[in-house]
């Protein structure tokens, strides 16, 4: 558009042109580089130049720059990134295509020399015509007659080529036009380089985030799960989720969110996820797991701030978390949350509720307690855990998002994978401003016929009775092959409970993917595996338990403790002879034959 001051008295033609160039450069400083997207930044350069400098602009960038990397050879693997002009029918190579430029073209000459190339008359530009005579004739037929090819240089690195074409003005480009095009390209190149480096960092953080999230879940029968992770449009945060098998066929479901975005948030997320898995191995209830995570976040925060209490740096790290334990044998679900969104519970009939779960403080505040809540979940219920990015969005009311989630979940007998997809389609914002982690778990129940329980007083004479009952139950389940191992293992656990624990004592068998043997009593004293001297009469029993089982451990309850051991359903080849030898070698720990009847 022509400027009003072009008609002012005393204002010469050259002064007007100089003023227009300064205005264009001033406007370019605010309109180029508004985003950290390489392609968008390149297009902003073209939009600034058309029609005030050129009638058509094409921009070619190496694929490595589009990925965020520095180009090793910018003359190779060029892609047409932008085509912009006063008309859409001009036959330039279309955007998205790979461009193979000959060394004689002005574009490649400017890229290899690092200098702007001006072709005032394309009809006599032999190097440009040689690229494609047919295409050159088509472009010339659209009255395109002059070209400025500018290398996009930033920090001494060639990032691509910007080509400016003139068609409507019959005068060819001049030196002033070349200087203006070069200035615009230089400013745009700096913005493209910033966007390229951001793209590279974003890709690195996203790769780190994906590597730290579960790549697959271990086999278990308690829940059927599906999940989604969607990074924010403008950054990657610290959202995470996990499914952790626990002892006695139980499973833990975890979802959390680290405050902030970028590499630091993703790395902190990985540390918290690893810590949560380690604390889960201790068989702690949800509130105690959150206490340990809270202490860890506080410790990490102090490490980030340093030891100087007057540094003025506080609250670098913060996180929220929801920790759930589901027991398929009792159909009980225990939850605790640390400042996190409450889960959604979908009942088998499709009714959706949001359990009234105490919020708890976010992780890292320290010194504040967490509370648990317990619910009964009928078989086929669905637990939906998510991070706040799903329902909190600046362009949408919170209650509206929660209602959208409720409607998306209100469908009975739907597989978790379909539930995940329905939530993504109905609730996820079009342009997420925050990461979103979504975990859907449909509960299953352990068949009551696969659970056997015996209550007994603290009397050593009853060990043989329990062992006989266990043998009958294993035979009913068709597990005769491992019956001897299980009898031997339970004899040791029950005898330890009688000698060192307090009544009442309970024995329980859980038949699932493995066979879990439990012995519980009212004492909080836990046994420890140790090496026994050759002269010791005891101390080898837990060694026997460890050899006969795949895993074993202690779980504390409000009433006392549970010693559990998980055993394979089939005996490996050659294991029978080893078991018999272990039994004979371990009688020192079990006492005499009179102490443990019928062994």
Amino-to-carboxy terminus distance? 102 Å
CATH class of the largest domain: Alpha Beta
Question: What's the total helix number?
Answer: 16
CATH architecture designation of the largest domain: 4-Layer Sandwich
Structure description:
The chain has 599 residues and is α+β, with helices and mostly antiparallel strands. It folds into 3 domains: 198 residues, GAF domain (Beta-Lactamase, 2-Layer Sandwich), CATH 3.30.450.40; 231 residues, Phosphatase 2c, domain 1 (4-Layer Sandwich); 143 residues, Histidine kinase-like ATPase, C-terminal domain (Heat Shock Protein 90, 2-Layer Sandwich), CATH 3.30.565.10. Helix content is 36%, strand content 23%. It has 16 helices and 21 strands. The strands form 4 sheets. The protein has a 6-stranded antiparallel β-sheet with strand order 3-2-1-6-5-4, sandwiched between helices. Strands 7-16-15-12-13 form a 5-stranded antiparallel β-sheet, covered by helices on one side. A 5-stranded antiparallel β-sheet has the order 8-9-10-11-14, with helices on one face. α10 runs antiparallel to α11. The longest helix is centred in the N-terminal third of the chain and has 38 residues. The protein is elongated and about 115 Å long. The protein starts with 12 loop residues before the first helix and ends in a 9-residue tail after the last helix. The N terminus and C terminus are likely disordered.
